Amino acid sequence: MPPRTPEAQAFFHAVYAAVQEIPEGKVTTYGHIAKLIGTPQRPRQVGTALKHLPADTSLRYHHDNVPWQRVINGKGIISPRSQPEGARNQAASLQAEGVVVTTGALGELMVDFAEFGWFPRLLPSDEEAGVVPDDSNDDEESG
DNA sequence: AGGGTGACGGAGT
DNA sequence: AACTCCGCCACCC
């Protein structure tokens, strides 16, 4: 079942399309997807969209063509759901494509952003604002 | 039709 | 650095 309103449906589709751009073997965050699609204040709804990703392969976006497993939270942890199995399943999917998942002391399933993170520096909002990439960066994402 | 929940993240304490 | 609050809004009672 698709979402009720056309706006919500468009948002869901934007999320799915953005998630499809995450390269195999890489991960990004809910918040980053939200930024990429121009709604930086809606990371939570990105999670909602992925939660309701259809299994029906006859639809445009579904479980098999949207790499939902490549989206984790900003702390580098595979978000625990009401069902712990969901996170375990996500970890297995990531490991199957070469992502190293480590288990913390409390059972958190973690991924190292320094090695597996995908965070394109040029966002759609940057293009609209005419921002150009700057090579005199002050960040240090690599490790 | 109204209120609670939650695959998040940022600000404040 | 850990914890609480709060904005966000689609889904599910």
From TrEMBL:
Gene3D superfamilies: Winged helix-like DNA-binding domain superfamily/Winged helix DNA-binding domain. Keywords: DNA damage, Methyltransferase, Transferase. The keyword Zinc does not apply. Residues 11-99 form the Methylated-DNA-[protein]-cysteine S-methyltransferase DNA binding domain. One of its GO terms (molecular function) is methyltransferase activity. CDD domains: ATase. One of its GO terms (biological process) is methylation. InterPro entries: ATL_DNA_repair, MethylDNA_cys_MeTrfase_DNA-bd, MethylDNA_cys_MeTrfase_DNAb, WH-like_DNA-bd_sf. PANTHER family: 6-O-METHYLGUANINE DNA METHYLTRANSFERASE, ALKYLTRANSFERASE-LIKE PROTEIN 1. This is Methylated DNA-protein cysteine methyltransferase. It comes from Cercophora samala.
